[in-house]
Amino acid sequence: MKKIVKVILPSVLSLVGYLQNAEAQIAEEIKGLATGEIHGNFQADFQYYRVDTVIGAPIVAEKILANGFSNVIYTKGNFTAGMRFESYQNALQGFDRRYVGTGVPYRFAQYKIDKLDITVGNYYEQFGTGIIFRSYEERGLGYDNAMDGIRLKYNPYKGIYMKGLIGKQRFYFDKGEGIVRGFDVEFSLNEIFDSALVNMGDIPQVILGGSAVSKYQPDKDNVYILPENVAAFSGRSNIIYKRFSFLGEFAYKVNDPSTVNNYNYNDGRALILTANYSKKGFGVSVGAKRIDNMNFRSDRTKSVNDLLINYLPAMSRQHAYNLPSSIYPYATQPNGEMGSQVELTYNAKKGTALGGKYGTFILVNYSLAYGIDTNMVNPYRYESKFTKLGPQYFSDFHIEVTKKWSKFIKTNIMYMNFIFDKDVVFGLKGYGKIYGNIVVADVTYFINQRNTLRFEAEGLFTKHDDRSWAMGMIEYTFSPSWFVAIMDQYNYDNPHIEKRVHYLYGTFGYIKGGNRFAIGYGKQRAGIFCVGGVCRNVPASNGLSLSVTSTF
Amino acid sequence: MKRLNYLLLIVSVLAVVSCDIIKEPYVENQGSTVDTTTVVVPGEEELSGINDEPNYRRVLLEDYTGHQCGNCPRAAETAKSLHDTYGDKLVIMAIHVGFFARTNSPTSTKYTYDFKTTTGNEFDTQFGNSAAGLPNGMVSRFKANNSYIINKDSWGTYTDSVSKIAPKLKLKVKTEYVNDTRTVKATVYAKSLVAVDAPYKIGVYITEDSIVNWQKDYSLPSGSQDIPNYVHMHALRETMNGTWGDILFSENTAANFFTTKTYEKALPTGVVAKNCHVVVYAYNSNTYEILQAAEAKLQE
Fold first, then answer.
1. Substitution target from A98, A141, A519 for chain B, most B beta carbons within 10 A
2. Residues B137, B141, B143, B147: what is their CA dihedral angle, to the nearest 10 degrees?
3. Which residues of A touch B133 (CB under 8 A)?
4. pLDDT, average across residues A368-384
């Protein structure tokens, strides 16, 4: 008896132990199956406006304006669903006031099954470079042309990717009138023929793609006979071989008379070509584009930033520094432009004469934009020679040198020369071409691992328009928790003496975990832009602003 | 935690500081209104001629504009061509708002005339016209795709569709002007054609034509965009009963209900009486939609 107990009991006990373990494991697995994950983010901006007649800050009836939004996304296995709340009480200055009240302008459900990806509700999408279709958001600018409908993505065979979509676009808290439908297919040849190519050594990677997009909007106009269905087609190819890469896309759009092109019945064409070469320490990038009558919106009567279906990419450096990016920013002209860009980067190694002790990085960039040649044959059509240049709209030549001098000091210096046709780019008249130079000096002093002090000085020198500007900023960062900065922009030789104002602005920010708080106080410059015969003014402002962002 | 307290303090200071402290007078100077809704003089309805008013809905076209807005003359041309097409069916008000209606300093030679009005600014704050970019307009404050704001290329389309909607009331205005005192008197006659489904309010305004002054026009060659003697038409100058007006018919008023309202207001200085019209419109105070409009010259 004792023997049996001695043998059986421990084995029974260990069996029980094993079963208990197994039960715990199964419980864990079931728990895992039952729960998904919730993520999201939140941002709110509040601003208090003071009247300031010197800078032309208008009276804001509400005194305090606020924008806020929050995304909440739930993911579980192959299923994702989410929504975005937006609240404008009322919208900040510079935003369209049709962003008003609280709503859920974005909601979707997405499910992947057997190589088919289905999305219902709102979605963002891009075909190729975006020249015939790009739906995206830029919340800080109040830009959002989200689609609302159905999107299908299918990968029938390795290397073949198909996308189909249909829906209406977001128009503030409603939808645009037009219905947009699109189809895109991309062939990654190396993936498709991978078994045939496996022993061929170093061969180029080739991707070919094509898309078709069309929109429907009823013709309720009693003056013109308007096309209710407007289609656009594009073909693209992307080739990568050793150190070279090449991307080209050509798009064609049928007649699309609209407010922006003055009810012109020409076809639209766009061609984008870019090529890159890079090796260690040296890179070259070249690009050229030609845009002819490519304003494409799901409502032909809209302008400014409303209901755009496509996105015409910029072919010039998007500057991050203050004066180069905000005083004369170039914007692609949808009615017609020809542009090109060349960029060279060189990384001088440590120890070389140019490189110094820590290395030096040099960037040279030159970009140009011209109008296209147009000859009106009748009030509704024009002829345009493909290679003939129209008037010059813009040019930007700059050299930027980044150098680390010691363990503590790093500098970035830039010199830029520009030509900017303010009449064409801003849609105004009477300003003509602005010729000028910009100099930027950015010095960072790393006090120790946590404390950083940065000085920035910029100057924009021109004899035209409002003439020259000077800008200075000091920023202190205590990593990773907080930062404080003070900036001044001064239009020191404006021809009107009363406009020589200091735009002084101070910010203080605090970051903790996923939360970020920032307070700013001071004056902000005005801005103006026009698209399609409608001009918008972002007014100057003076006051206190508070921004809260959080990610979870 | 301490840092958060400081932040909260700043936000609460913001809240306190953002308030308007009103000093006397406390009541808006609207001019006198003699409301005769309850006592209708016998025979007044026939005398008013309201029943002879045409049985269509007049459309109010509001053209939001500015003298420094170079694209705005195109919108004024569209308004004029619609006026030629629709005649009596269309009433126009040009409202100068925002950055492009700003005036230069008094010592400047151009754009010193102030076309802006308190009423226009209040419409702009409510409907967001200057923020959406000028020129733009509203057609009887009809909402298209949830937006009141309509691009000039669609004004014709919406004028056409709105004017075809069966009218809910008839509206007529008679004006009188006393030269010596520069007093404007307006008598408004209104008659409901169907039962009233929401509180209807009435707005009474004075507009002025033929104001000759500067206007920017981008269609002209470079260097000559400033027109010194542009003829500004239909400019809103003053309200006779407040920006948002006063009650005309309360909700559930029966059909065929007739009422009269009279208003009096001094014509602002500098406004030329013989170029003026009194514009009147009745609107659904819940939706802002303008249900009927009427207009009469100030001096025949």
1. A98
2. 40
3. 303-304, 530, 534-536
4. 93
